[in-house]
Design brief:
alpha+beta; 18% helix
Length: 182
């Protein structure tokens, strides 16, 4: 992809290439919620659970419906804020709402067939930064599978999504983390 032919990747999943060893993004699956070559991009890491639930962070009774919502490490930017996102299927595609307040998340959590997650931080790219990383093959953009909402949102999500790309990518998911240690 070149700046002369930008493509909009909004709504796609970005799968980290196995060579991307940066701790925040190692084996990450990111929902690219916003993308513009001119404005940059915003996404949320879907498969790095923090081990916490919203009830451990927000204790007011008005947020009780969110008490069991899992909290994820959304990325390295804005880690001093808790934000919410909701996911559902619409016309056989993943639909989502991001950058939601806790009050909005409570409303979405009451909708049938809707998954709500909380995120500490987010993943962000400045103008042209994501395009450069894509040219360097740090990320593999893919369509979100229809099964995304029923899959575990943990490290296994990365390998499941990556192996769908090609037989070569399937083999990459089977490789040990440190090839030099073998």
């Amino acid at each position: 992809m070149t700046p002369n032919s930008p493509q909009n990747l909004e709504g796609k999943l970005l799968l980290a290439d196995p060579s991307l060893r940066e701790a925040n993004f190692f084996k990450s699956v990111i929902l690219l919620a916003e993308h513009s070559h001119d404005e940059g991009a915003f996404g949320l890491v879907l498969n790095h659970p923090s081990g916490k639930h919203v009830g451990e962070i927000l204790t007011d009774p008005e947020f009780a419906p969110l008490a069991k919502v899992r909290v994820f490490d959304g990325g390295p930017v804005g880690r001093d804020h808790l934000t919410f996102a909701a996911f559902w299927q619409k016309d056989q595609k993943l639909a989502f709402a991001t950058r939601m307040s806790a009050e909005q998340a409570v409303k979405y959590s009451q909708r049938p067939n809707t998954m709500v997650h909380a995120f500490i931080g987010y993943s962000g790219w400045s103008q042209g930064q994501l395009e450069e990383e894509l040219e360097n093959q740090a990320w593999h953009p893919v369509q979100a599978p229809r099964t995304l909402l029923s899959q575990p949102h943990d490290i296994t999500l990365w390998s499941e999504a990556l192996r769908r790309i090609s037989p070569f990518h399937h083999i990459l998911t089977l490789a040990p983390e440190n090839l030099l240690a073998n």
